[in-house]
Amino acid sequence: MRAGLPVARPGMRIGLLGGSFDPAHQGHVNITEAAMRVFHLDRVWWLVSPGNPLKEHGPAPVAERVAHARRMLTDPRVVVTGIEQDLGTRMTADTVAALKRIYPGVRFVWLMGSDNLVQFHRWDRWQDIAAMVPIGVLARPGSRTAARRSPAAQVMARARLSLAQAETLALRAPPAWVLVNLRMSRQSSTVLRHATGPR
């Protein structure tokens, strides 16, 4: 095990919530809590990315974003990490592949908001991600219908689970995904950045 990486045992169910977290906000916390409950996860790791290739402007430094995110959390089952910086990966497909090598036997689930499913087909090697880990999609304001109709959802239609099967998502062989509804938070990192002004 590399120094600085979280500890995980084979058989554990761990959700991976990636993003710039620039800054982390209550919406991230709500998604995390819902994912742990609905998918019966043992842990959720927040993967604070060095940068998002789909975003025009670069985020604040990783250490600053990690520190802010950690101050928001009180549940010890949620771990805020800079794993992508530690591993030297930029693309989600590379990060997931590396984690599966480092943590054999751990049952990872990729977590995303429904707004991300809308653009999932634009991610680098998105179908490789879907082939490596089950995907838990949590509804976000204004994107539920678009997510269900998205190109990725259409391609993965046969792999979609029912809501009744959501609790077994981590045990499913990929590709497998499910879209679940949750109480909405309209907070977004973009809005919070504009509200707090320039750094």
UniProtKB/TrEMBL annotation:
Please report the stretch or stretches of sequence annotated as the Cytidyltransferase-like domain: 16-193
Query: Which UniProt key words apply to this protein?
Result: ATP-binding, NAD, Nucleotide-binding, Nucleotidyltransferase, Pyridine nucleotide biosynthesis, Transferase
**Enzyme class name:** transferase
Against Gene3D superfamilies, the record matches this protein to: HUPs
Catalyzed chemical reaction(s): nicotinate beta-D-ribonucleotide + ATP + H(+) = deamido-NAD(+) + diphosphate
InterPro entries the UniProt entry points to: Cyt_trans-like (IPR004821), NadD/NMNAT (IPR005248), Rossmann-like_a/b/a_fold (IPR014729)
Enumerate the Gene Ontology biological process terms: NAD+ biosynthetic process
Q: Which residues form a coiled coil?
A: none
UniProt pathway annotation = Cofactor biosynthesis; NAD(+) biosynthesis; deamido-NAD(+) from nicotinate D-ribonucleotide: step 1/1
In alphabetical order, the GO MF annotations are: ATP binding; nicotinate-nucleotide adenylyltransferase activity
The record, for Pfam families, names: CTP_transf_like
Any idea of its EC number? Answer: 2.7.7.18
**Task performed by this protein:** Catalyzes the reversible adenylation of nicotinate mononucleotide (NaMN) to nicotinic acid adenine dinucleotide (NaAD).
Query: Which family, according to the similarity comment?
Result: Belongs to the NadD family.
PANTHER family with a match to the protein in the record: NICOTINATE-NUCLEOTIDE ADENYLYLTRANSFERASE-RELATED, PHOSPHOPANTETHEINE ADENYLYLTRANSFERASE
Which HAMAP family does the record match to this protein?
NaMN_adenylyltr
Name the record gives this protein: Probable nicotinate-nucleotide adenylyltransferase
